[in-house]
Design goal:
With 442 residues, the protein is of the alpha/beta class. 43% of the residues lie in helices and 10% in strands. The two termini are 29 Å apart. Its cofactor is FMN.
Length: 442
């Protein structure tokens, strides 16, 4: 809850005690991630296209299932009679000490789930002490999100614009707004094959929603229209978004709809143009960003080594939650191979390279598995968006506090006191099962 007396320095498991002692009911309706997903679907039943845009998958949904099954293949081995009375989840990423290894993943177009969009999520993350990663596809400006995040830790995720001048403008703004690390997404130079969105022709960008990083950017806006347009730093997108009604207004020649369509499609051409970058292009970002650079979407040892050769600071092992390529390897299976590389492990131990994990984290057990497999931090996406849809800022806080409490409790029950005791120790903390549970596709 906003204003909750718990602080990042408090034992996370005290959140559980506070629920039992006060009888407080959750605003999200449950602490079971499967039930939260169902509740989010129910609360958005009148806006189902927006729900599916956020929570749907590429193709048949097989990669989404592969993500969950790859985690299920590994089981934790609890140890007994070990002194885990006092526990913490502290970790350090890029020289910054953090109260846990959990980060809020970059999630676009949050304004179609809740009226406050990214402002709610950024504020909740700061309240809990969890780093917030802002998406280029946000429905609020860089500056507005930074203000909502206040003194929280924040990173900026880049959907790499086609135009260098626009890219440089965004990087300058992000740095000025206190974003300390740059996350470059590599797997979305064009949008994946998503039947659920195609069935309803649902793409919020065409209505000017999710393009607010662009509409607040002076360089981008100067390039749009005859003589350019003035930036809109405080723009708030409509909620709920009725895309059919927008199309009707557009067809009728509504000037506001036409302006939104023009800006939305122009921003799409910048960020999802179909122009693919190569490894040599990373040098441009390295020259123009003063801070850590992390490449998101790496799934192979070869690409992990290429990232090291490109002198970036880290990678996020991710397949975009299964939203880009159907039939792809589960992200945790990719993490297993990448962190088994002696070159990667040496660089991690020397503090020269950081490996983070994304795609499939749902529970505290998942977090522990990822850390034991060699990840130094994990990014969480869908569960946080369920919380946003169900309760705005308060809902996001509840999801984060619940995940942190679950992680800390499970860590102790397995006989460990801190993250260092399990990091990279797959041989003693985990074992691989023969037959994982089958997941139900969305």
């Amino acid at each position: 809850m906003p204003g909750d007396p718990l602080t990042p320095q408090t034992t996370w498991s005290q959140y559980t005690a506070s629920i039992y002692l006060t009888g407080r009911r959750s605003v999200i309706g449950s602490y079971d991630h499967r039930r939260i997903e169902g509740k989010a679907r129910e609360v958005m039943k009148d806006n189902h296209s927006a729900y599916m845009y956020t929570f749907g998958n590429a193709g048949t949904g097989s990669t989404y299932c592969n993500n969950l099954e790859a985690l299920e293949q590994w089981r934790i081995i609890p140890r007994m009679l070990r002194n885990a009375t006092h526990r913490n989840l502290d970790t350090t990423l890029f020289g910054v000490k953090l109260p846990s290894p959990i980060l809020v993943a970059p999630l676009g177009v949050q304004g179609i789930l809740h009226k406050d969009g990214e402002l709610a999520t950024a504020s909740a993350a700061a309240n809990v002490g969890v780093p917030f990663v802002m998406s280029t596809a946000s429905t609020r400006s860089i500056e507005a999100v930074a203000k909502a995040n206040s003194d929280g830790h924040r990173w900026y995720q880049l959907y790499w614009p086609q135009t260098n001048e626009v890219t440089l403008s965004i990087l300058r703004r992000a740095k000025a707004a206190g974003f300390t690390a740059l996350v470059v997404t590599l797997d979305t130079f064009l949008l994946g094959w998503r039947p659920h969105d195609l069935d309803t022709a649902y793409l919020p960008f065409i209505a000017g929603v999710g393009v607010q990083v662009g509409t607040s950017d002076p360089v981008f806006m100067q390039r749009v229209g005859d003589g350019g347009l003035a930036p809109r730093p405080d723009e708030r997108t409509p909620f709920p978004l009725d895309l059919d009604a927008f199309r009707a207004r557009l067809a009728a020649g509504d000037e506001q709809a036409l302006a939104a369509f023009t800006l939305g499609t122009a921003w799409l051409r910048e960020g999802h143009s179909g122009t693919f970058r190569s490894w040599k292009d990373i040098a441009f970002l390295r020259e123009n960003w003063d801070g850590p650079i992390v490449l998101k979407g790496v799934q192979t040892i070869q690409d992990a080594h290429a990232a090291m050769d490109a002198r970036v600071d880290g990678i996020i092992v991710s397949n975009h939650g299964g939203r880009q390529v159907d039939g792809a390897v589960g992200s945790f299976s990719a993490l297993e191979k990448i962190t088994a590389s002696p070159r990667v492990r040496r660089a991690q131990e020397q503090g020269m390279f950081t490996v983070l994990f994304d795609s499939g984290i749902r529970t505290g057990s998942d977090v522990i598995k990822a850390i034991a497999m060699g990840a130094q931090g994990v990014l969480v996406g869908r569960p946080i968006m369920y919380g946003l849809a169900l309760g705005g800022e308060e809902g996001v806080e509840e999801v984060l506090r619940a995940l942190l409490a679950d992680t800390e409790i499970t860590l102790g029950l397995c006989g460990y006191r801190n993250i260092d005791e399990i990091w990279g120790k797959r041989e003693t903390v985990l074992e691989k099962a023969d037959s994982p549970h089958r997941c139900a596709k969305l």
